[in-house]
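Complex 268.
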Amino acid sequence: MNAFLLTLALLFITQTLAYQRNVPTMPDNIAGGRTARLGEFPHYVGFVKPDGSKLYCGGGLINKNWILTAAHCIKETPNQQVFIGKNNWKNKTQGLILKMKRSFYHKNYDPITVINDIGLVELYEDIPEDPAKNIRYMELETTERPLRALVTACGWGLTEKSETEAPDDLRTVDLPIVEGEKCFAHGLFLNETMICIGDGDRKDTCYGDSGGPVVRRSKVNQRWIAVGITSYGGLICGAEGSRGTYTKIKSYLDWLDSLNVTYIKASS
Ligand SMILES: *[C@@H]1O[C@H](CO)[C@@H](O)[C@H](O)[C@H]1NC(C)=O
Ligand SMILES: *[C@@H]1O[C@H](CO)[C@@H](O)[C@H](O)[C@H]1NC(C)=O
Ligand SMILES: *[C@@H]1O[C@H](CO)[C@@H](O)[C@H](O)[C@H]1NC(C)=O
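Predicted structure with 2-acetamido-2-deoxy-beta-D-glucopyranose bound:
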């Protein structure tokens, strides 16, 4: 552990035991993964800081005008640009910039336990699905996923190559769902509204990936189905034994229903 991370560790232990995987607090990206292909994750959106300098969170489009993300992504930087349909986030010819109408997060979100780390962004304009622009809605998981089932995470967060510099190209990694105790043993609080993901084999999400959905592929229509939302993890992402804790989307379908936000239920 280098001095920089040690300082951050001490700083954060005094505030919270969880290390949220977004950029404003600390550098957030995929470790141990590969570069995604343009159009591979057509639901995936990136959140850019208001000055355009940095990407710091992800999210997923669930219908024509709503994006699902993590509460802490909204709480810390309420007004940002959002884009979709990009692979290289700096490439201006790819994808669309979306205008936010409003955003809010779960009223019982607790930044200390990171319980209810879920939020929504409403868009000004309706965004139709469009294969030519690499835009497609994700479905939402309705059933419990078995242990060892693989899910796919993606993000522009930090990689194992750098502790400070995030990549321009979207990265992706496949990770297994594991027993909650494996995250708990790591000092990460967990109950059944969260999912523990990762084998601790240096594949992980990281700072900058927060809010992005972890997905599986529908067998029926090839759409992506969102299982979880990247929330927090071990201090040094991608380190041996580091895992992540994700918001379990299935636990929040009633919440979406109560807000009259529509979504597509998992097709299979
Ligand atoms: C931007 O993306 C387009 C579409 O994928 C590609 O043709 C072009 O080469 C990219 N430009 C740069 C500078 O990478
Ligand atoms: C999970 O833990 C939080 C914090 O203790 C609690 O508020 C919530 O009710 C728990 N969820 C369930 C489903 O038990
Ligand atoms: C959702 O729709 C129902 C029925 O139209 C309405 O009674 C309720 O107030 C709405 N809730 C919200 C949060 O808009």
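The two ends are 43 Å apart (CA to CA).
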